[in-house]
């Protein structure tokens, strides 16, 4: 989703990635895997906790805000000069297939909580909605903050409809394994657009080019290289981590 650059390189080439953005995305996907692992532990009876309450609320917020803000940053890096239609169309197709897979697999996990508009569906729609303001960072920041506040403070019964719940601002929410409505979360993407333009500045380019690959401690270097790789393959990790964990837990249940 983002582009890379070699450390200390003075300019960003359109075909490269930003290592620090990949690392941040890797942290977000790692936290998401930890969250889902704890969810599975609770589901299979290894721990007793209540998701959606207590410390799980801020934990999920950190994950979602971080991940979706980086979506906005990456959109700027890819499309700021002009819309890269080849990249956009390819990503759209990948996300469409992934959305079908997630919604379909959700039927076997919890048929009454099928994911209709989860984080992948959200990213697919948000990636297109962000294009009109991709080169208007100040407007993106103002609108993004407004959407985030409205989405957390305003509700209307009109949006309770199953056909409109994906927009957000509903008084009641349908049960779902994953639900990420446009309000308030489109605000995080738009704020990410603003931050993406900062990463295109001189100071931002230096931070974006930062990498742990030269860290003197071999263990820390390897850990951070792994996190960076996770960020580069976040979509694949998102798709496979839950089926793998479910398979392991089911195997344990069957064998023991």
Structure, briefly:
This protein has 256 residues and is an all-alpha fold. Helices cover 64% and strands 0% of the residues. It is globular and about 55 Å long.
What does this structure look like?
There is one protein chain. The protein is mainly alpha-helical and 256 residues long. Helices cover 64% and strands 0% of the residues. The chain has nine helices and no strands. The chain has helices at residues 19-43, 56-79, 85-109, 119-129, 137-153, 182-199, 202-208, 218-232, 234-255.
Q: What summary fits the major beta sheet?
A: none
What pattern of helices and strands is seen along the backbone? HHHHHHHHH
Count of helical regions: 9
What is the mean predicted local confidence, pLDDT? 89
Computed over alpha carbons, the radius of gyration is: 19 Å
Net shape: globular
**Helix coverage percent:** 55-70%
Give the structural class: mainly alpha
Low-confidence stretches: 1-15
Question: What is the strand content?
Answer: under 5%
What topology emerges from the helices and strands here?
Layout (H helix, E strand, L loop, with lengths): L18 H25 L12 H24 L5 H25 L9 H11 L7 H17 L28 H18 L2 H7 L9 H15 L1 H22 L1
Helix pairs in contact: 1-2, 1-8, 1-9, 2-6, 3-4, 5-6
Q: Which features characterize this protein?
A:
globular; 9 helices; 64% helix; 256 residues; mainly alpha
């Amino acid at each position: 989703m983002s582009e890379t650059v070699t450390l200390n390189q003075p300019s960003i080439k359109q075909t490269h990635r930003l290592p620090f953005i990949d690392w941040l995305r890797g942290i977000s996907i790692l936290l998401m895997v930890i969250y889902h692992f704890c969810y599975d532990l609770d589901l299979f009876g290894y721990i007793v906790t209540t998701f959606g309450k207590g410390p799980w609320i801020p934990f999920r917020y950190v994950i979602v805000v971080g991940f979706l803000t980086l979506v906005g940053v990456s959109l700027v890096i890819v499309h700021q000069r002009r819309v890269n239609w080849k990249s956009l169309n390819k990503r759209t197709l990948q996300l469409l297939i992934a959305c079908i897979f997630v919604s379909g697999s959700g039927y076997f996990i919890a048929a009454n909580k099928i994911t209709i508009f989860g984080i992948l569906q959200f990213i697919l729609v948000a990636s297109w909605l962000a294009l009109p303001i991709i080169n208007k960072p100040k407007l993106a920041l103002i609108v993004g903050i407004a959407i985030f506040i409205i989405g957390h403070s305003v509700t209307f019964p009109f949006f309770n409809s199953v056909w409109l719940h994906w927009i957000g601002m509903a008084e009641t929410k349908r049960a779902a394994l994953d639900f990420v409505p446009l309000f308030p979360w489109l605000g995080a993407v738009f704020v990410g657009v603003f931050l993406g333009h900062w990463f295109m500045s001189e100071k931002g380019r230096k931070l974006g080019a930062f990498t742990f690959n030269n860290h003197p401690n071999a263990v820390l270097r390897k850990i951070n290289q792994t996190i960076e790789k996770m960020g580069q393959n976040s979509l694949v990790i998102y798709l496979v981590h839950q089926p793998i964990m479910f398979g392991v837990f089911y195997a344990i249940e069957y064998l023991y």
